[in-house]
Amino acid sequence: MELSEAILYRTESVGKSYHFGEAQNPSLPAQHWFQQSTDGLTLFIVFYSQACRWSKCLGCNLPSKMSQFHVPFDKLMKQVDYVFDYVVSEENRSEIRKVIVSNNGSILDEDTFSSTALFYFIAKMNMTCPSAKTLCIETRPEYVDIEELEILARVLKEGETHTQLEIAVGFEAFDDDLRNQVFFKGLTIRSFEELAEKLAQHQFKLKTYFMLKPVPGMTEAEAIEDIVSGIEYLSAIAKKYDIEINMHLNPTYAAYGTPLEKAFNEGTFSPPKLQSIQQILLSARDKGISIFVGLYDEGLAVPGGSCVNDPADKLVAAIERFNECQDYDLLLL
Ligand code: SF4
Is 57 in the pocket of ligand 1 (CB under 6 A)? Predict the structure, then answer.
């Protein structure tokens, strides 16, 4: 079966009905934005490529922004040019401290994202962003080839600032059954720990995406408990392997074209409460990991289906400030 057919098959096999983003101009990235984190000004780029080969995770419609079909390397290189010609400017280029690269799937899967384009991107980043201290690459663990990372890390050292490599993987839910039998993540604890050990040996950093309340039918208390257990676990892994770990916590939204949209309409899924995020964050003090809460739904939620209904809510502002400085006292509202 062709990869494009396999992607469609896997998408439909778990009841997802979204279409892929074939209308997108392949010479332009799918999305980009700036955010503030403890690392400073962070540029997040989502390149437009062939969709995630896995495509099965229950509440995820990120592949809907991508193509079902192969996007060749020259188009991806044009997207890189666009980033450095139009997104990175004279004014912000020395302010950028971190760059996160994504294709809503696995940047290190060379069948969906060209290695030529990745090295081209790093070369341009070295030339254009003199203060970038971290390059974060999103991928599933099965595409991490440590020899490839060593070469990437060597190239990253050649810029004006020594840029450290961070690998970001989706973990989504701590509970094994929830993660693999209900959410269909396809991630074992063993493969995660092997990845952590390998990254630690090379002093690379690890970012892990978790989802708060990822499936229908979970109570608020169960959702909180799962993430609190995840924090305890990551804290232990950070100590065991002496590795820097960031948890990127995404409050789940009802993503269109997924079973969560249907559950939201039927009343069996409601997005998590901001107060639950507050409670989780307050439990993470002194755990030795950093946490970033992704409140932005990237335009992928159905109306009313995300946890932020009032952007002026003081908890939203407190969480966003917390993202920048990890000051737990800001959350004592
Ligand atoms: S969560 Fe990641 S791995 Fe899972 S389907 Fe979405 S993009 Fe693919």
Answer: yes
**Is any atom of ligand 1 closer than 6 Å to the C-beta of 46?**
no
Indicate whether residue 169 lines ligand 1 (CB < 6 A). no
60 lines ligand 1 (CB under 6 A): yes
User: Rounded CA gap, 92 and 28, in Å?
Assistant: 20
pLDDT digits (tens, 9 = 90+) for 186-219: 999 999 999 999 999 999 999 999 999 999 999 9
Q: How many Å apart are CA 215 and CA 218, to the nearest integer? A: 6
* pTM of the predicted model as reported, rounded to 2 decimal places: 0.95
Instruction: Give the β-pairing of 40-46 and 31-37.
Output: antiparallel
Ligand 1 geometric centre to CA of 252 (Å): 14
Take atom 5 of ligand 1 and give the residue whose Cα is closest: 55
* Range 3-331 has CATH code 3.20.20.70: yes
pLDDT band at 302 (very low <50, low <70, confident <90, very high): very high
* Six token digits for residue 147: 């020899």
The helices-and-strands tally (H runs, E runs) of the chain is 10, 8
For residue 172, the ligand 1 atom closest to its alpha carbon is 1
How far is residue 149's CA from residue 153's CA, in Å, rounded to a whole number? Answer: 6
Q: Is the pLDDT of residue 163 over 90?
A: yes
